[in-house]
Specification:
By secondary structure, this protein is mostly beta strands. The chain has a single domain, classed as Immunoglobulins (Immunoglobulin-like, Sandwich). Helices cover about 0% and strands about 60% of the residues. The strands form 3 sheets. It has a 5-stranded mixed β-sheet, with no helix packed on it. A 3-stranded antiparallel β-sheet has the order 2-8-7, with no helix packed on it. Strand 7 and strand 8 form a beta hairpin. It is elongated, with a radius of gyration of 14 Å.
Length: about 90
C-alpha cells in the first residue's frame, strides 16, 4: 500500500473493519491510537460506528512527520491493524 500524505490543517479519517467468518461484526470495544514518530506523542482517537463492524475516527494533526495508527477490537471480533501516513511540514504561514 502506498503511503498517504496529508497537510497540517487536514482532518484524517481513520477506518477499521472487523469481521468474523467474512461477516462484518461489532467488537466488544474498539481503540484507535495515532503515534507521531517525530515527536513520540501518542493520541487516542474516539471511534464511532457508522455501521456494524465498521469504525471511523477523525485525527487532526498538529505536527509534521511520519505517523503510525492502530485500530484494535476486543471480544468476538478481536483483531488489530496498523498503518502509516505522513503529515507534511507547513511551508506557508
Amino acid at each position: 500500500m502506498a503511503t498517504a500524505y496529508y497537510d497540517i490543517g487536514d482532518t484524517i479519517k481513520l477506518t477499521g473493519t472487523f469481521t468474523v467468518g467474512g461477516v462484518l461484526t461489532a467488537p466488544t470495544a474498539v481503540t484507535m491510537k495515532v503515534k507521531n514518530l517525530s515527536t513520540g506523542v501518542t493520541t487516542t482517537v474516539t471511534p464511532t460506528s457508522p455501521s456494524t463492524g465498521v469504525y471511523t475516527g477523525n485525527f487532526d494533526p498538529v505536527n509534521a512527520g511520519e505517523h503510525w495508527y492502530r485500530v484494535a477490537g476486543t471480544g468476538t471480533a478481536k483483531s488489530a491493524a496498523e498503518d502509516t501516513f505522513v503529515v507534511r511540514e507547513q511551508r506557508v504561514p
